[in-house]
Amino acid sequence: MGETSHHADDTLHRRGLMFILSSPSGAGKTTLSKMLLAADSEIRLSVSATTRPPRAGEIDGVHYHFVTPEHFDRMIEEDDFYEWAEVFGHRYGTPKGAIRTALKDGQDFLFDIDWQGTQQLYQKDQQDVVRVFILPPSIDELHRRLAGRATDSVEVIAARMERARAEISHWDGYDYVIINDNVRECFAKVHAILEAERMKRARQTGLIPFVRGLMG
Ligand code: 5GP
Asked: pLDDT (tens digit, 9 = 90+) per residue, 78-111?
């Protein structure tokens, strides 16, 4: 049998993709993002800039680039953002920075952004964007998850539920929708989508020379 010295999968060049995970808070998006980053070495988190102050345990440059409102204004003026949006009174944006060149080199990026950011990214770059939306299994379960976080007042929980409903209403702007009934199963589905999207013909820029070689 004629053996080749390389596996096609290891050597074929492909274009990276922008993998967006959105969900209402409480549907498990953060857990799923962490699982994906831990399980898959080819995808990296896109670190957003935000004017929101850091929460306990959040590290500048890892979870977000924490910037002042003035700094954020300057970034807008200098056209540094792929997209930006105001969410719950603070501004969040995806810096263009290294993303464009890294995509060409085959680097995948994970985006934990809301529906507004998803729409903007998609308008700018439909080819590279894959949009995944995570739904809670039921409104009761969502309530349980949102209420179970701390000793919050009824009003605070009601406000969170309202925001969650507003986010859910944008479910139809996504390519894939997964109901997170069981986090392991949900993660397997998310990962399967990522793997399948990587194999799309248009992303596999190394195919032409490879197939030419096959045809002799
Ligand atoms: P948090 O303050 O809880 O970290 O995030 C609040 C919301 O902002 C989340 O829904 C998150 O998905 C969204 N968000 C985070 N970064 C960005 C970004 O760069 N662009 C947009 N449009 N939304 C973002």
From this structure: 999 999 999 889 999 999 887 988 999 999 999 9
* pTM assigned to the model: 0.85
- Place domain 18-203 in its CATH homologous superfamily: P-loop containing nucleotide triphosphate hydrolases (3.40.50.300)
Q: Is 23 in the pocket of ligand 1 (CB under 6 A)?
A: no
Task: Give the Cα separation of 161 and 61 in Å (integer).
Answer: 30
Burial of residue 28 (number of CB atoms within 10 Å: 0-12, 13-18, 19+): buried
Distances (CA, A) of 69 to 5, 73, 95: 54, 6, 15
Pocket test for ligand 1, best of 66, 99, 113 (most atoms within 8 A of CB): 113
Q: Which residues pair with 135 in a beta bridge?
A: 179
Any ligand 1 atom below 6 A from CB of 109: no
Q: Indicate which residue's Cα is closest to atom 15 of ligand 1.
A: 113
How many A from CA of 137 to the centre of ligand 1? 22
Do the beta carbons of residue 74 and residue 94 sit within 8 Å? Answer: no
Question: Domain boundaries in the chain?
Answer: 18-203
Contact 28, 183 (CB under 8 A): yes
> Separation of 148 CA from ligand 1 center, angstroms?
22
Q: Compute the chain's Rg from CA coordinates.
A: 19
